[in-house]
Amino acid sequence: MPKVDPGALEELQQVESELDTRWPETKIAPSLDRIAALVDVLADPHRAYPVLQIAGTNGKSSTTRMIDALLSRLGLRTGRFTSPHLQSVTERISLDNEPISPERYVEVFRDLEPYIAMVDAKSDVPMSKFEVLTGMAFAAFADAPVDAAVVEVGLGGSWDATNVADARIAVVCPIGIDHVDYLGPDIVGIAREKAGIIKPGSIALLAEQQPDVMTELLRRSTEVDATVARQGSEFGVLNRHVAVGGQVLELQGLGGVYDDIFLPMHGAHQAANAALALAAVEAFFGAGTERQLDVDAVREAFATLQIPGRLERVRVSPSVFVDAAHNPHGAAALAAALDDEFGFRKLVGVVGVMGDKDVAGILTALEPVFAELVVTANSSPRAMSPDLLGEAAIEVFGPDRVHVEQRLDDAINTAITLAEEVDDPREPMAGGGVVVTGSVVTAGETRALFGKEPA
């Protein structure tokens, strides 16, 4: 990664400080008026390229990156918008699979600043931080220009700022209960909100869902006359087996079977994400029963894929992994991958969570795979205190398996010491291991502690 000028980082921090005075990204209102007004005065940059939009509760970021990698390997110039970021806000807006530079981030914001002020002046509520970031992404993509934009929904669907775009391809990842304070506890209502990304005449690629969720997604698709392809019916994972550094897949796509696909990611959930991403790209290119994508290009795109913070290994002997699971569904997928694909004699968890999450659900999902647990906190003001998290963990793990550390770095060191009790340098994947999880912020700060660059 090119060395960044300290002055550029200072300007980036200044812009972030300005944006942080706005509504936070966790606060939404049921209106697209402000983002619509911004893209209108910007001459509709979001209509300058076709859009693939990704919603759901879990798997959005991984699926978005997979789609981006496939499109790029198949010859398109791409823009990618994801959230939240792990380490640097510049990760949110990517061109050609690389985050834009701090200099470019600042430049885009300053270019849009007078137009943002115009929208603010006409609204009772100023634009939120996420709305501004969405406008910046659309503008950066149009300026590049890109051949396609891969856009991850921030929160929800219908009223998310990204939904001002009319996506040609709508991808709905597995839907569960999360962000209860904003989306509510009713999974059908959550599904209805997320189904709003399915637009008239679009193609909807639907991951496997609970029956009542699928009913809601199909209802929306019928209402807007969208073409539907469902995982487990029109596409899916035919076979998968564990390999060194990941897994080898046989995928049923919309246009045929793609075999010998090496995916350098762990877990059945990532295999499912890969099938969903492949079908989305096939739909984008118009692949069908008589037309496949270039199989070699598909293999290369998946084989070279890098997704930070998703069971990412950051240390050897003992092995330390980072995973951004932050709700019970994600924690359960992580636990299943650890149980199915690794042979550690002792696995120690480091968990730091946000106070507004289903903490008991996350801990319960992780309990079967962690021999011991070190609870801590990340730097977010929303983080649950280690002491409160420790009390919750004791209810699930029992007092003898729980350790409390106030700082994340101390928690990781404690976990490494516990894992080293059974570590065997000759078999780093069979002795002791550490997994740091519970929050995207926890994952990002852990990557930074181990010297990983934003990706």
Could you tell me the number of beta strands?
A: 17
What is the makeup of the main sheet?
8 strands, mixed
- Taking all Cα atoms into account, the compactness measure Rg is 22 Å
Number of helices: 15
The parts where pLDDT drops under 50 for at least 5 residues are none
Which oligomeric state applies?
Answer: single chain
Fraction of residues in H or I helices: 25-40%
Domain count: the total is 2
Instruction: Just name the CATH architecture of the largest domain.
Output: 3-Layer(aba) Sandwich
Q: Which CATH class of the largest domain applies here? A: Alpha Beta
Q: Looking at CATH, which topology of the largest domain would you report?
A: UDP-N-acetylmuramoyl-L-alanine:D-glutamate ligase
**CATH-level-4 superfamily name of the largest domain:** Mur-like, catalytic domain
- For the largest sheet, list the strands in their spatial order: 4-3-2-5-1-6-7-8
Decide which structural class fits the backbone. Answer: alpha/beta
What percentage of the residues does DSSP assign to strands (E)? 15-25%
Q: What's the short version?
A:
This protein has 455 residues and is α/β, with parallel strands linked by helices. It has 15 helices and 17 strands.
What are the defining features of this structure?
single chain; 455 residues; alpha/beta; UDP-N-acetylmuramoyl-L-alanine:D-glutamate ligase; Protein-Tyrosine Phosphatase, Chain A; 2 domains; eight-stranded mixed β-sheet; six-stranded mixed β-sheet; 15 helices; 17 strands; globular
